[in-house]
Amino acid sequence: MDKQKATLLLQDGTVFHGTLIGKHGTNGGEICFNTGMTGYQEIYTDPSYTGQIIVNTTPHIGNYGVIDTEVESDSATIAGIVVNSFSEVYSRLDASQSLNDYLISNGITGIADVDTRKIVKHIRSKGAMNAIISSEFDNLEDLQKELEKVPDMAGLELSSKVCTKEPYFVGNENASIKVACLDFGIKKNILRNLVDRGVYCKVFPAKTSLKEMEAWGPNAYFLSNGPGDPAVMDYAVDTIKEILALNKPVFGICLGHQLLAEAVGIKTYKMHHGHRGLNHPIKNILSGKSEITSQNHGFNVVREDTENNPSVEITHVHLNDNTVAGIKLKDRPAFSVQYHPESSPGPHDSRYLFDDFISLINNN
């Protein structure tokens, strides 16, 4: 059977023609690339990728299908995928379905049989930009009109759209440590790592008030990862300021890291093309050791603001571009990192950060 054609149009007018994967239709979002060699299922279900079109640099995608137990959220909220060689046949014995069927069931339109290396080099040169994938529009002028409707990621608030609508519990209710987790787009493996260390978690929607969270009596607070621009999340920054005033332990990951920085007066900015992959080198300044990390972010904290803030210490730096990758507060028991120590997918070099959080709680 002949494959259906699809078109990828970038905001700067660059066009790629390929074949349709996933749902027949038209989807737009910010195009970015992930350099991970495995773990496409975890990437597609990471809420931090909401509204983004993912270019996989690994040439073969779909060959091990999809398994229900390895999702990072209840559904995939990406705007689309771009791959080189796509396999509708999967070889993993315990897979529940093909990736193509999964994409269709989640309403995701993708494109295959394109030169992903060329696309990645283009994004690295020109920067992340909006793009659109379509199997419906043959006329580029019509497709351009559809692309113009796609909102820019800068200034976009998404966490309140992807977070849980009602609080829920994870872990053993008899555990000695209770952590209130603010859900800005939390990954399930973060909660697994906390529960594995004897934590009882209550996950709250992004816009929950401090009063409601404190009524549960948590020992500490966790600030999750998530999508969108931290600079427009005043509701979260105000709540985090209130949390910090309690002097309880706080740990933030990715967007949570950026929001903690905003709460202490450090600005954030949109990066040229971001960090997304499983092989990003980080130096822990406190220990002097390096670690290979999993990352997924298009925003970062301003290094100059961080260096000039007397109450903040830089704890981790990205060795490729010297950007700030971790901070801790000098006057309060709070710290955060820009990358993903739960690393699903990815290396486990940074899992110690969850142990550091538990020690901070026990010693507070």
Topology (SSEs and partners):
Elements lengths: L4 E6 L4 E8 L3 E9 L5 H5 L7 E5 L3 E2 L18 E3 L2 E2 L12 H7 L3 E4 L3 H11 L2 E6 L5 H8 L11 H4 L5 E3 L6 E7 L4 H8 L3 E7 L4 H5 L5 E4 L10 H12 L4 E4 L1 H9 L4 E17 L5 E12 L1 H5 L4 E7 L5 E6 L4 E4 L14 H12 L1
Parallel strand pairs: 3-4, 4-6, 5-7, 6-8, 11-12, 11-13, 13-14, 14-19
Antiparallel strand pairs: 1-2, 1-9, 2-8, 3-9, 10-12, 15-16, 15-17, 17-18, 18-19
Helix pairs in contact: 8-9
Subunit structure: Composed of two chains; the small (or glutamine) chain promotes the hydrolysis of glutamine to ammonia, which is used by the large (or ammonia) chain to synthesize carbamoyl phosphate. Tetramer of heterodimers (alpha,beta)4.
Pathway: Amino-acid biosynthesis; L-arginine biosynthesis; carbamoyl phosphate from bicarbonate: step 1/1; Pyrimidine metabolism; UMP biosynthesis via de novo pathway; (S)-dihydroorotate from bicarbonate: step 1/3
EC number: 6.3.5.5
Task: Walk me through what this model shows.
- The chain is built from eleven helices and 19 strands.
- With 364 residues, it is an alpha/beta fold.
- The protein has two domains: 5-147, Carbamoyl-phosphate synthase small subunit, N-terminal domain (Glucose Oxidase, domain 1), CATH 3.50.30.20; 159-363, Rossmann fold (3-Layer(aba) Sandwich), CATH 3.40.50.
- The strands form three sheets. A ten-stranded mixed sheet has the order 10-12-11-13-14-19-18-17-15-16, sandwiched between helices. Strands 1-2-8-6-4-3-9 form a seven-stranded mixed β-barrel. It has a two-stranded parallel ribbon with strand order 5-7.
- Helix 8 (234-245) crosses helix 9 (255-263).
